[in-house]
Amino acid sequence: MLLLSAAGIAILLYVVVQSVAEQIAQESQDNILAASAISILDSARVVEGDISIDLPYSSLSMLDSVTDERAFYAIRLNDEFLSGYPDLPRIAATNDATAFQSTTYLGEDIRIASTWRSFSTLEGQAYLEISVAQTLTGLNQSIARISRISLAIGFGFFLLSMVVAMVIAQSTIRPLHRLTGSVSRRGPSDLRPVAAPVPTEMAPLVTSLNSLMTRLQKSLSRSEDFIAEAAHRVRTPMAIVRTQAEVTLRRVEKEEHRQAVREMIRAVDESSRTAGQLLDHAMVSFRTDDLARETIQLDDLIVDTVNRLHPISELRDVEIKTHKLTRTKIQGDPILVQNAIQNVLDNAVKYTDADTKITVMLDQSDGYAQIRVQDEGRGFDDTEIDQLLQRFERGKNADGIVGSGLGLTIVDDIMRAHGGRITLSNNVGEGACVTLSFPL
Amino acid sequence: MRFLLIEDNQALANAVIERLSLDSHIVDHAANLTTAWDYTATAEYDLILLDIMLPDGDGRSFLEQHRSAKSRTPVIVLTARSEVSDRVGILDLGADDYMVKPIDFSELEARCRAVLRRQTGAAQNTIHFGEIEFDSLAATLKVNGTEVKLRTKELRLFEVFINAPNQIFPKSQLLDRLFSYDVEASENAIEVYVGRLRKHLIGSNVSITTVRGLGYKLECQ
Fold it and tell me: Which whole number is the average pLDDT over A245-272?
């Protein structure tokens, strides 16, 4: 765009300089030609009724004094040739003013000036016509020179304006780049005001960007607070119900009442779990939109997660064992990765039978870090293995176990966001195997 | 055990206190941080149960001060916020563990045990009864000086009996304390575990006897 307009201006400049120069050169030649013609005319005298012309030397010498132009003249009286070059083209006379014309003569471009005057002779009114012509070689040469100079000026202008434009654009764009850099390098939750120094022209942009950040921050923290507050509001009464139910269960004796209270506790657990996983699901979507990339020591993370699950697995008499954890580092969001591992282990603990073992392994193969969680439980139903990753989809053999059907969906989302995948399969012997593969 | 419960919701606090006293724990209740500091200054607790959102401040600030005061009492955070990021932050601030409300008390018990077991130099918690010695934290049972290995369920069942010797426990009550509610379990399972415990106790003067129509009790001849 800039290039085009600079080129346009340069061409315009060239054309203007060229035509002005041509015009000026033409005018000065015309003036000389006219002066020469008039000086010849002025030397004409009426002597004893006849016209006598004494051709002044200066009238023709002024023509070739400057350049090596060839000069021609013709003197005609009442359309009758008197002296000079007889075949010099004539131009139509208008009135007393001098007329000019460009034409060719003897194969050369010439410029002719003609002027007239009437004299009173014995035979009556006589019209004396003087034509002076000059070749255009020198003029054309000087016009070509001017044209070269004006071309050089135009080109120079073009180059200069390009350089200036580049410098200006650079100095305008550099702060913009700095600003872009400082905004795009940010983590997903970094909504601090932009502090990169910018020229005053860009200050309004930064100000409105910062005010957008502030509003976004406010609205985010408001919705986060809202979710947390909502969870708090729901979970506290649920906690009261569950605790009171446990207390009641200790007190009632009749089996049918006890059964009813147990159902109550189970329902509370189910809604609390679903609420938790819905929150997790929302959190996962939010975080995967703009995934944090940190270095995660995967084997340490597995050990932490397993340790945290020990009390629950003990309650069920299920043993969680880690086996051959290869030291492995991956890039990703540690909170999400831990959430994925925890969901898989939670499932394993839930669906496996008491007095069985869950084995967690970590190795590297084909450019992937693979976490394998094997249990000795009932395994997956082969016909529905593909549907289990979908939202709210639960296995047919999950009856009697509290669950929301969101756990594996969350894991699937997390794995995809990290460029990895979750694979469900059944062991050769018994039980299920869930494999989480992260790209190394 | 002696608990300090820091929780601003009175109804929930009452229920938790009642529930914990059923297992013969002693619970002091602080409804805000100020009261909580008064309690920790005057009494020793085995464990602190801490709510995060409190009327006069954030439970997290309690955690930080508690840790900087070099207090050894473990803290389990009871939070209504289930977000993973919150949970991670809580552990970073020095909580020993956390649980999301509503609380499963058998899980709480398991977590308390795990936390206390982790704490190095914790006082010996050995109970002597007749010819047996029982350490619930170390999970060891010595019958006539010989150490016996107990599996988790056996351990937990024995713990119920030894904390209240001579008390009769109906099968249904034992069932509730042994199994979480989302698992279908029958009273037969209790008979199986009682049978295993009886085998371990052979050779001592302690035994689990059946009280016909009522349940089981631990006694010493």
Answer: 86
Q: Which of B101, B137, B174, B193 is the best mutation test for A, with the most CBs of A within 10 A?
A: B101
DSSP string computed for A254-271: -HHHHHHHHHHHHHHHHH
pLDDT tens column, A119-138: 887 777 888 888 888 888 87
- Contact yes or no for B103 and A255 at CB 8 A: no
Q: How far is A406 from chain B (nearest CA, A)?
A: 15
Report CB contact under 8 Å: B12, A239: yes
Q: Cβ contact (<8 Å) for B83 and A310? A: no
**Residue A169 banded pLDDT, cuts 50, 70, 90:** confident
CA–CA distance, A316 with B152 (Å, rounded to integer): 8
* CATH 3.30.110.30 for the B152-220 domain, yes or no: no
ipTM beyond 0.85? no
Q: Spell out the domains of chain A, with CATH numbers in brackets.
A: 2-145 (3.30.450), 187-290 (1.10.287), 292-440 (3.30.565.10)
Which residues of chain B, if any, have pLDDT below 70?
81-88, 119-125, 180-184
- B215: tokens are 């349940």
What backbone phi and psi angles, to 5 degrees, belong to B37?
-65, -40
Instruction: Using CB atoms, pick whichever of A269, A310, A350 lies closest to residue B114.
Output: A310
Using CA coordinates, name the residue in chain B closest to A242: B102
Q: Which of A41-50, A358-367, B54-63 shows the lowest mean pLDDT across its residues?
A: A41-50
Does B151 contact A at CB distance below 8 Å? yes
User: Is B2-118's fold the same as B152-220's?
Assistant: no
Closest C-alpha to A414, from A342, A316, A350: A342
| Contact status, residue B8 vs residue B29, Cβ threshold 8 Å | no
Chain A residue numbers touching B81 (CB-CB < 8 A): 228, 231-232
pLDDT at A270: 84
Are B105 and A243 within 8 A, CB to CB?
yes
What are the helix (H) ranges across B101-142?
Answer: 105-118
pLDDT at A189 (0 to 100):
61
A418: which 2 tokens? 């990290």
Model confidence at A162, pLDDT cuts 50, 70, 90, reads confident
> Residues of A with CB below 8 A from B102's CB?
235, 238-239, 241-243, 268-269, 272
Tell me which CATH code domain B2-118 carries: 3.40.50.2300
Q: Where are the domains of chain B?
A: 2-118, 152-220
Q: Does A186 touch chain B (CB under 8 A)?
A: no
Cβ–Cβ below 8 Å for A338 and B88: yes
For residue A330, which phi and psi values (nearest 5 degrees)?
A: -130, 170
- pLDDT at position A96 is 64
Mean pLDDT (chain A) is 82
